[in-house]
Amino acid sequence: MLERFIYPGPHTRVVFGNGTLADLPAEAKRRGMSRVLILCSKGRTQLAEKIAAALGDACAGICAESVPNMPREVFDAVKAQLAESRADGFVAVGGGSPIGLAKSVSVSAQLPFIAVVTTLSGSEMSPKWALGRGLSRAAGNDPRALPTIAIYDPQLVLALPPKVVVASGMNAMAHAVESLYGDDTNPVIQTLSDDAIARLYTSLPQVVSSPASIEARNEALYGAWLAATFRSTTCLHHLIAQQVRQLFDLDHAQTHAVVLPYALAFNAPSIPDAMARMQKAAGVADMPRALFELNKTLGLPLRLTDIGMPEARLEEAADTVMQVKSYNPRPYTRADVITILKQAISGEAPKPFV
Fold it and tell me: How far apart (Å, rounded) are the C-alpha atoms in residues 36 and 50?
């Protein structure tokens, strides 16, 4: 199992390792935070209360308002509580929803925050922020959206059901895979993406087969951090998954898991070097098929319709995807997007694209 370590990144100080949640009060003090509001979802209130007790007089309260898709009214409520409590910083506890909300709040309020990471989503390492969903959402790219400190404690991931962990792990896998062929990839990103793919491909099944294994969750969490921190521009997979899940209010991580094998099968003929790298890292001969089979092994949904996408609205989904421009190593048309979506609705193994 990986030993505890600190990575002093250019924007975010990473504190990784078993039991590192206990470092939070000292890290907040180190950053100069004297009144700290804790942001979480209602399901994470118990953990927030534990953090509040550790912070003692430095805690300015708990705001358990986080919900998926960062709606404007929740954003306004968090900003109001920050002002009322006279907080000089805050802590975001959880996965993509509270941390995504924290990023928007941090940019707007110009307050630093600490991310206490409990899933493998990787949102905390992206400077992209957003409010709302769909084509009307507000969004931006700003380094001020990054947490000043990120705490990765595998003990917190141990408390999550395996299905939640592995779904977010497949989202992390998508970051690592696409980073091998994004338009701004480089040898450093590719080497670390190889490592992330290898660790995630091995550890995610272990999370399911041995739910109490702290070693498996440690490996998965580290692989997810690598995939999130050292990544290149996202491509067609992320474009399709993000637009579809926002349009139909689908589970974020599960949508990425379902779409990944099919989007990768589409790109495969145009990225032979990247395919060779990821297949070597995972130890497989056919990466799209291997990712599809991995979803099966992990007990994840195999069809977009299984997680709520109406098949009758496939054409609308394709139109929504095509309204957003994205880099991709292989040019694609609306017909290509429809084909990918049809495969992702079928639940069958990905077919080769020519």
Answer: 14
In the numeric block, the tokens 């490996």 are attached to 219
Give me the CATH code for the 5-158 domain, please. 3.40.50.1970
17: left (phi over 0), alpha (psi -120 to 50) or beta: left
Return d(Cα 271, Cα 194) in angstroms, integer: 15
* pLDDT tens string 66-113: 887 667 788 888 899 999 999 999 999 998 789 988 999 999 989 999
Within a 10 A sphere around the Cβ of 195, how many other Cβ atoms?
17
pTM of this structure: 0.93
**Contact present, 38 and 61 (Cβ < 8 Å):** yes
E strand intervals along 245-296: none
Residue 135 is predicted with a pLDDT of: 56
Coil, strand or helix at 16: strand
* Residue 51 identity (one-letter amino acid): I
pLDDT digits (tens, 9 = 90+) for 308-335: 999 999 999 999 999 999 999 999 999 9
Task: Tell me the β-bridge partners of 93.
Answer: 116
- Looking at residue 69, what is its pLDDT? 66
Helix crossing, 236-248 with 314-322: angle to 10°?
130
Question: What does the alpha-carbon distance between residue 303 and residue 269 come to, in Å, rounded to a whole number?
Answer: 24
What is the Cα–Cα distance from 304 to 342, expressed in whole angstroms? 9
Provide the CATH number for the domain formed by 162-346 in this structure.
Answer: 1.20.1090.10
